[in-house]
Amino acid sequence: MSGQCRDTETATTKEHVLSVQPQAEALPPPPPLDAGKFTFVLLVHIVSLISIGLWIYGTITVSGWTLFNAFMCFAISSTTITAGYHRLYSHRTYRAAWPLKLFFLITGTGAVQGSALQWAAQHRDHHTFCDHAKDPYNINLGFWHAHIGWVIRQTQPDYNRVKDLSAEWMNRFQHKWFGPLSIITGFLIPAAIGALYGEFLSALLIAGAVRLVIQWHMTFCVNSVAHWWGSQKYSTKHTARGSWWLSFLVWGEMDHNFHHTFPNDFRTGTRWFDFDPGKWFIWVCSKIGLAQELKVTDPEKIERVRVQLVPSAD
Ligand SMILES: [Zn+2]
Ligand SMILES: [Zn+2]
Q1: For residues 272-301, average pLDDT
Q2: What pTM was estimated for this model as a whole?
Q3: How far, in Å, is the centroid of ligand 1 from the Cα of 123?
Q4: Does residue 136 contact residue 126 with C-beta atoms inside 8 Å?
């Protein structure tokens, strides 16, 4: 995409050309482990498991307030990943006013999945080189590589892919200060909210660490599960798949096959009631003037593509 909005026809055609017979390509081995990323990801998982143990054995008190705190942190930062990092910054499926961008940049740090620049650069590579050597989370390197292996390896985002985004100072600021900002929004703010009702430690552990691990794996499932299981209603020229149950597993990134085929559409489920909090959030934002020019694929084109495809065995 090279930082510019592509029309759906061009994007789809390019993807398909690049995605022919991915298995025929000799793939290079995955990059070596990144000691820093590996240690951090492992540490958060260990802390989460210990936290659940402390909760089960009653060492820490986890009230309904802490569970609500954790759910809100989860819902807000997950919606930011789908509506902001994915559909705004990576695909430019709509235009957003600066207060909405500021909201995404602040809450996006709380998801601790890298800066918007890093996330979008790697995701644009994922679409352009899907299933090929330059796909950062190439499913042909195995389920676990696509799920979490790539996260803890020395991947090098190509920031030339996001020159349009790095032109905005807010994005550069978030990228520069991502580390400390993610500690503040991902851990300290949930804990500070917990302190207001007397559960600082529980909120730090449950709304911080446990919530983060659950959220990570839900997002990671888009790169692993959604390229592994499910049906291919719109294209078999890439490995992306979709299924109704997947929408609940991945916070509304419902039909990944639809998304890879029509990447400029702001939706992943075409029907209004398809579980897709990102789509609903963008739509609400458009009604209050925070989002404009929402891109929707021509329904006739979607149907034409769907009926032309020989049904897959799934
Ligand atoms: Zn995408
Ligand atoms: Zn994908």
Answers
A1: 96
A2: 0.89
A3: 6
A4: yes
